[in-house]
Design brief:
21% of the residues lie in helices and 32% in strands. It has 454 residues and is of the alpha+beta class. It has 3 domains: 39 residues, no CATH class; 143 residues, Probable inorganic polyphosphate/atp-NAD kinase, domain 1 (Rossmann fold); 170 residues, Sandwich (Tumour Suppressor Smad4), CATH 2.60.200.40. The strands form 4 sheets. Strands 10, 11, 12, 13, 14, 15, 18, 19, 20, 21 and 22 form an 11-stranded antiparallel sheet that branches. A hairpin with a 4-residue loop joins strand 1 and strand 2. Helix 2 runs parallel beside helix 3 and helix 8 packs antiparallel against helix 10. GO terms for molecular function: lipid kinase activity. It comes from Steinernema glaseri.
Length: 454
């Protein structure tokens, strides 16, 4: 037995026990924590290890399944055809096994042809999507991964010269294999589908493999960085506490799954940081008709060539995002903020902006958000209004039920666009959970839409 010091943090929400273990980190500076927590996805208590200072954990490199091979399945007179990406490194690393054992038999049974690509490196799907000249032959793109691979596919599509041909006409089917899956959870939330554990996965497998599959329209956001790059977001823009938790907990993706967010929240709240920034935003005061009426279309009703024959783009290689902005006149990031924007310069603890309801299957971050909204939702906490790590951790645990926004120290603002200019360094800027290398960022609601099968 190894000697351990035990501490119990009682948040009056869920107990969480920390064991500081001398065996795994005997050094005077390092601190290795073996903890028992709750996995919100499964409702089961889990145990894992955390290193909150420099240490020497067991190496667990993220490598592709050596036995995984790309695969093409063709049939005569198919119901439809899918292009499928499976990321063997997402979540607990089971995406390829899920495809082989659970999804493939359903596709074969329902006479659905497919091409499977097992990704081998970052940006693999992005590169494939940008280069393929036969995307119009597929009824949908299926993704067995988390939101990271969705991010690659959407941004690969939008940077194509014929991008108008695919938004929203080429839908995405998602089989949750990552630790986030906020996009799929947001779509399922509108249909009251299960979002927990194996039922979440079973529903996803049913949704994407049925001959009567339906796609739901989802809004997209234009994101601009200081290096001139344009990105499309479907989920969130984060900085400060939420971004730190997301990125710093990546190391526990395999052993903990979605429980990594709980572990990261505990460590970051105990070691609370604050960051200074200038935040400017254009308030949204109107609701368009599109945010009320959810639009859907059948996945297999017609060929994509027929659905898109009238909207093929001839605009060249560069998309003009300002043409899609919900509010005209939004300046470029390098230009001054207009007088009708609100500007705040202060010390922040938390900043998070979302366009849909869920940031993960067990994270109901913005209950009022609709899939086809014409706005973004800013949330932020100022350091001067937050001086308790326990209150902040309690706030984070309430995200599961969507009651965190009732906290008086949390500000919520619907906006058409915003600009974040961090003054202090030391935090990540993330878009849909992906780290973006930029010193400032601007996001704008757009009329661009994708579609998700549900």
């Amino acid at each position: 037995m190894y000697s351990c010091m035990k501490r119990t943090i009682d948040l009056k929400v869920k107990p969480l026990h920390l064991y500081v273990c001398e065996k795994y980190n005997p050094g005077p500076v390092s601190c290795c924590v073996v903890f028992i927590s709750y996995s919100y996805s499964s409702g089961i208590a889990t145990m894992g290890g955390i290193c909150c200072a420099p240490c020497h954990p067991r190496k667990n490199p993220r490598v592709a399944d050596a036995g995984a091979r790309d695969e093409i399945h063709t049939v005569e007179s198919p119901t439809g055809r899918f292009l499928i990406f499976a990321n063997p490194n997402s979540g607990e690393g089971k995406s390829v096994a899920v495809f082989r054992k659970r999804l493939k038999p359903e596709l074969v049974k329902n006479n659905i042809a497919y091409e499977l690509i097992v990704t081998t490196h970052a940006q693999h799907a992005f590169s494939v999507i940008r280069a393929r000249n036969d995307l119009h032959e597929f009824n949908a793109i299926l993704i067995l991964s988390g939101d990271g691979l969705v991010f690659e596919v959407i941004n690969g599509l939008v940077l194509r010269p014929d991008h108008d041909r695919f938004f929203p006409h080429l839908p995405l089917g998602i089989v949750p294999s990552g630790s986030g899956n906020g996009l799929l959870a947001s779509v399922y939330h509108t249909k009251s589908y299960p979002l927990k554990g194996n039922e979440f996965l079973k529903q996803a497998l049913r949704s994407v493999s049925q001959v009567d599959a339906t796609a739901h329209i989802v809004s997209l956001t234009h994101v601009e960085t200081d290096n001139g790059e344009n990105t499309v977001s479907f989920l969130s823009i984060g900085w400060a506490l939420m971004a730190d938790i997301d990125i710093e907990s990546e190391r526990w993706r395999r052993p903990l799954g979605s429980a990594r967010f709980t572990a990261g929240a505990v460590i970051r709240c105990i070691n609370l940081r604050k960051y200074r920034a200038k935040l400017s935003y254009l308030p949204s005061t109107e609701t368009s008709e599109s945010s009320v009426n959810q639009r859907t279309f059948p996945v297999f009703e017609r060929e994509l060539t027929e659905r898109t024959s009238k909207c093929a783009s001839s605009s060249g290689d560069t998309i003009n995002f300002s043409d899609y902005h919900v509010k005209p006149g939004v300046p470029k990031l390098a230009e001054p903020v207009p007088d009708n924007w609100v500007t705040i310069e202060d010390d922040f603890v938390l900043f998070y902006a979302v366009s849909i309801s869920h940031i993960s299957a067990d994270g109901l971050f913005m209950p009022s958000a609709r899939l086809n909204d014409d706005r973004l939702y800013l949330t932020y906490i100022l350091a001067k209004e937050m001086n308790s790590s326990v209150k902040l951790l309690s706030f984070l645990t309430k995200i599961e039920e969507g009651t965190h926004l009732d906290s008086p120290f949390c500000k919520k603002v619907p906006v058409s666009a915003f600009r974040l200019e961090p003054i202090d360094t030391g935090s990540y800027i993330t878009v849909d959970g992906e780290v973006i290398k930029t010193s400032k960022i601007q996001a704008t609601a757009t009329s661009l839409r994708t579609a998700v099968i549900a």
